[in-house]
Amino acid sequence: MDLIIYGLINSVSLVLSSIGFALAYGVSRVPNFAHGSLYVLTGYMTWLFLNQYKMPYIFAILLSLAIAGLVGSILYRYILIRVRGMPISEIIASFGIGMAILEMLRWAGLRGGTYMLPPFIRGSIDVAAVPVDYQRIIILIAGAAVVGFLWVFTHYTKTGLSLRGIAQNERAALTLGIDSDKAATVALGFGSALAGLAGVLMFPLGNITVQSGYEVLIFAIAVSVCGGLGSWGGAILASFLIGFAQIITVTYIASHYHFVVALLTIVIILILKPSGLFGRQKELEERV
Amino acid sequence: MQDKRKERIDRGVKVRSDTIYAISSMKEIMYLIGPRMGLVLFLLALPLVLPIYWQKVVSITAVYALLAVSFGFLSSYVGLVNLGGALFVGVGGYISGLLNSAYGLPLYISIPAATLLGALFCTLVLLPCLPLRGIYFAIVSFVYPLAAVRIISATGAFGGTDGIAGLDMIGSGYGSQYFIIVTLLLVTFGVSRLVSAEDIGLIFRGVKDNEQAIKASGLNLTMYKAVAVFIGALIGSFAGAWLAHLYGWVGMSLMATDFSILPLAATVVGGTSTIYGPLVGTLLLVPISEALRDFGTLRIVFYSVAMVFFVVFWTEGLLIYIKRKYEQFERWVRV
Questions:
Q1: CB-based contact (8 Å) between B305 and chain A?
Q2: What's the complex ipTM?
């Protein structure tokens, strides 16, 4: 029972931390390697607003999410747009920006146990005789809400439909008058805000550390690659696959291997099936 | 308003030295060999003029330059963007360290042995991902050193998180410095010659630009990629083994992301179109980054910002810019 409940929670947190990356990549084809740094940055900003400026918790969260979204859009609009379509340059540029943000935070003193966010609701509840704290329950609910929201958003709103149009066939979407750069800006903003949301939801379970930024990036890549870059359904399925695999490894082998599972998944999936479980790219493009 | 455009015209001396007249006078000869000799003499003079502390920096810079040459070779001539240079360094370092500490081999045997064995090991490990291209190869190669670090710290193999200490040290005298500098020069010129004048260099460029053509010519694509990775890994493993004996210590920090990203940054800054670009980029970046060491991780911020700036706003890189200024003059003309 432990296994199922914690596997579920772990999988949903993977969904949360990778859906932003998958969304941004699916629409704009820009792999946003600054994803992890926005995750940490949002957590840090929330902490700052909460403790330095004494804002109410909910307001601090909303404000830092808005800033994260804005940072993501600006990043695309003024920097990444210049290298769009050159995959390697996209990776180098976005990873460089991400690393600069993270190392700047580390230099500014983001280390140790002083940076903690309080849980939304303290205490825990017994689910089928397994104690689960409320924060983890909130993560479950938020994960489901985010996925539901994205589904409704991309199926029933004009902006969402235009995002999907760009993701499916950029040229056809362009002929219908959808501005692909505008859509990509929105998508990167959304993706960054989602990264921030994941940060705000998950940091109360531990400390805000710089290292977690790199880890979240790796997890997001693992999940997206495994599910097929650009496929959201695949990303969700892959989150569950990797999430449960991690929890099983932790329970039966050793907790050190928690991270290795994600890394090995990337390697194995890429070698066996480079387009991922649900990748829509043709094999030919990646493998000659 | 008068519309103007910039016109670039080859300098006279450049045009003359392109042809047989190159050897007609001292001026043309100097024009041709000047920059190359300048680089060589500059590197050879470094250990003589620098103070003691900076002499260690020379060795470290040379190590990074080797890595950058390896990265530049793989990415601009074979099309394999290897973001996992740290794997080469780590494997080379660990093998050399093990040979030295567990089997007591002296370092003039352990370093060459580690270079060969490390390159062999890295090639075998990367063999399954060689069919991948572009960003997929980049992601997998980036993941390798990270996974290796986690496995070492989880299993506690090779000294685990403590590493292996007490290796034979390379002194910081002139001998060792000249050895690494000469090696660097030989490797750079060797790789440059390999890709520009040998048949296999042509095949490598074919692998990068048109894999179908390589297959259609009846050549074994994966084998040539493996050969290229082997050459890159030779350089990287040697750098790692050297570094291990420079510090007298082998540990997980040999697989740090620094060793993957700094060569990448140097290549981007120097320019990707020749093998000298990475070299020039390293000579510029690493000393500044070492000077910033007092400010902790600010040096990482420095080189990542430089990398982003060059990749986004100044794609050609420094070397091409300098080359253009050297070979051509510019003027504004009315349209």
A1: yes
A2: 0.84
